[in-house]
Design goal:
Elements lengths: L14 H15 L7 E5 L10 E5 L2 E6 L2 E8 L11 H7 L32 E6 L2 E8 L8 H7 L2 H6 L7 E10 L9 E11 L2 E9 L5 E11 L2 H4 L1
Antiparallel strand pairs: 1-4, 1-7, 2-3, 3-4, 5-6, 6-8, 7-10, 8-9, 9-10
Helix pairs in contact: 1-3
């Protein structure tokens, strides 16, 4: 079940959190056999309702009322986005476009409409481009009320969308492949970095990484986003 707190759009689960929750169950069902997990979201994740999760061959499937919501499988190791110094990431937050206009303002990961300690309030602003692709960064200090693998996946989520300019081109998560090397330290300032990696029609391709205060990689992800009309999800 995805609780209402963990929404992305107003009426459905945050894609990263939902995928992380399924990845956590998949890790238990497969006894941690997948170093990286790929999750494809087939429907907007419903909120506050039970979902059935089963291992079907080499795929873990989440369903609601007979419909497939998401599928998890073994994934290729994501290529990390190079780090940005914490001071630069902190300064970039002032340029976060979502402070002025946001398609999903109460998103658990990046919504400015969430209070500290409720949402993650990761506000990625632009930093120096890398390989000719736009890049964003923000700091994130994990709160005691939000811990665990699904929260790490949520933190890996929206910086990718902002690197792909979700403010001007609203999109939702279609799929995410992530690897979590360690759980972030509660109360410690981490850095979240996102990079645009191209487009194909309605699809946008991005990557994100989280670094701990010592500069060590905590987790990395690659995403496919689908351009949508936000009114359909809000």
């Amino acid at each position: 079940m995805i609780g209402g707190r963990f929404r992305g759009p107003a009426r459905s689960g945050n894609g990263g959190y939902t995928a992380g929750a399924l990845a956590a169950v998949a890790g238990e069902l497969t006894e941690g056999a997948w170093p990286a997990t790929a999750v494809r979201l087939r429907l907007p994740p419903p909120l506050d309702v039970p979902m059935d999760v089963v291992l079907d061959g080499d795929v873990v499937v989440a369903t609601h009322e007979g419909e497939v919501v998401a599928r998890a499988s073994a994934g290729a190791d994501p290529v990390a986005v190079p780090p940005v110094p914490a001071g630069e990431a902190r300064a970039a937050e002032a340029g976060y476009p979502g402070l002025a206009s946001h398609p999903f303002p109460t998103c658990f990961s990046c919504g400015p409409g969430r209070e500290p300690g409720d949402g993650l309030r990761i506000f990625p602003g632009p930093v120096t481009e890398l390989d000719g692709r736009s890049r964003v960064a923000a700091t994130w200090t994990p709160h005691p009320s939000a811990e665990g693998v699904p929260v790490v996946w949520a933190a890996l989520d929206c910086a990718g969308a902002w690197a792909a300019d979700v403010g001007e081109r609203p999109m939702v998560l279609g799929s995410i492949t992530a690897r979590v090397d360690a759980l972030p330290l509660v109360g410690a300032e981490h850095v979240v970095v996102g990079q645009d990696r191209g487009r194909d029609g309605r699809k946008s391709f991005t990557a994100t990484s989280i670094y701990d205060p010592s500069g060590q990689l905590v987790a990395a992800a690659e995403h496919v986003w689908i351009t949508v009309d936000p009114a359909v999800f809000n």
